[in-house]
Design brief:
- By secondary structure, this protein is an alpha/beta fold.
- The protein folds into two domains: 166 residues, 3-Layer(aba) Sandwich (Peroxisomal Thiolase, Chain A, domain 1); 139 residues, Peroxisomal Thiolase, Chain A, domain 1, CATH 3.40.47.
- The mean pLDDT is 93.
- Helices cover 31% and strands 24% of the residues.
- The strands form three sheets. Strands 1, 4, 5, 6, 9, 10, 11, 12, 13 and 14 form a ten-stranded mixed beta sheet that branches. It has a two-stranded antiparallel ribbon with strand order 2-3. It has a two-stranded antiparallel ribbon with strand order 7-8.
């Protein structure tokens, strides 16, 4: 066992843009818009005005408001992000921790090389750094600040949201029992938005993730029937539905309801989906949940969770109602 998820804190900006509103800046044609809407299921995208710090600062405020007594015991804060460079070098991320009241000896670092999958890959490393009685905080979130970042051609459109995942080595809540990752390094130069050129990674994406999912289940010693839910990255509906059919996974086991609500929020998606399942009380005692994500480069990463009491992880969110957009 790697550790425990003690709480989930979620910050989702109240400002939203519709697919029609983001289309002009992304130079989407009417045909592109229909594809992203009808087949990919994308509709709304949270947008936080300002910088990355303006996204993370309210997240940290929400976290500290609900965990003030634990701040002295949080020894590591790790920010996982997709882009290698996310802020000017003279503005270190630790400044945010100081503002939020974390202890001076809290160690801050960031991890990125798995891109959108880093938020799952990092959990094993982070848990290995803490001792009994200590905690670590995993920060996930970044800005879709430029069209080259906001759009992955013929695949997805990025949203902006952030999560703070409180981790411990010992506890009673949500066991993180194992991690599985798989890489395809031949795509390490892939740039995501390729200006209309056919992507070689796109041509093998489906076979790559299908193979990785099979390997993950074997590594975890699980079967499709033993999983209650799969909480994936919100890249689009069609790719996960196709994968479900290929692997004989009932489509209703893959939680995709946040795709039209929030788009693909980088590495935050699996945690947003887990938080939604808990808020909606859709987990039962002894449920096994698999978190899964894929990052450019290419990296697949997954975590296996055991929830003995079901909806046992406390979820804190800035929204009065979360999720805040009802789906038909």
């Amino acid at each position: 066992m790697l550790g425990h998820i003690e709480s989930l804190t979620v910050y989702i900006p109240e400002v939203r843009k519709s697919l029609a509103e983001v289309a002009p800046a992304l130079q989407l044609s009417p045909l592109d818009i229909r594809m992203f809407s009808r087949f990919y299921g994308l509709a709304n995208f949270p947008r936080q005005p300002g910088s990355l710090d303006d996204l993370l600062r309210p997240l940290l405020t929400l976290f500290t408001d609900n965990h003030a007594d634990l701040l002295p015991h949080i020894k590591h804060v790790v920010h996982t992000h997709t882009l290698p460079g996310i802020r000017p070098f003279d503005r270190p991320g630790k400044n945010l921790l100081n503002e939020a009241g974390f202890a001076d000896d809290t160690h801050f670092t960031s991890l990125t090389m798995g891109h959108c999958a880093t938020s799952l890959s990092a959990v094993e490393y982070v848990c290995s750094r803490i001792k009994a009685g200590e905690y670590a905080l995993l920060l996930v979130g970044e800005k879709a600040f430029h069209p080259k970042v906001e759009l992955i051609d013929d695949t997805t459109i990025m949203g902006e949201a952030a999560c703070a995942v409180l981790l411990s080595r010992s506890g009673e809540r949500c066991k993180v029992t194992a991690r599985y990752s798989m890489q395809a390094g031949e795509f390490s130069q892939h740039r995501g938005n390729e200006s209309g050129k056919e992507s070689r990674f796109a041509s093998v994406y489906f076979s790559f993730i299908a193979s990785a999912m099979r390997n993950a289940l074997e590594h975890f010693g699980q079967t499709v029937s033993s999983l209650a839910w799969i909480a994936p990255h919100n890249v689009n509906l069609s790719s996960w539905q196709k994968l479900a059919d290929e692997l004989n996974i009932p489509r209703q086991k893959i939680f995709l309801e946040n795709v039209p609500r929030y788009g693909h929020c980088f590495g935050a998606d699996p945690y947003l989906n887990l938080a939604t399942l808990i808020r909606q009380k859709r987990l039962s005692p002894n449920n096994i949940v698999m978190l899964a994500s894929v990052g450019m480069g290419a990296t697949f990463s997954s975590l296996l969770l055991e929830l003995s009491a079901g909806n046992e992880i406390p979820v804190f969110c800035n929204l009065k109602q979360f999720p805040d957009i009802k789906q038909d």
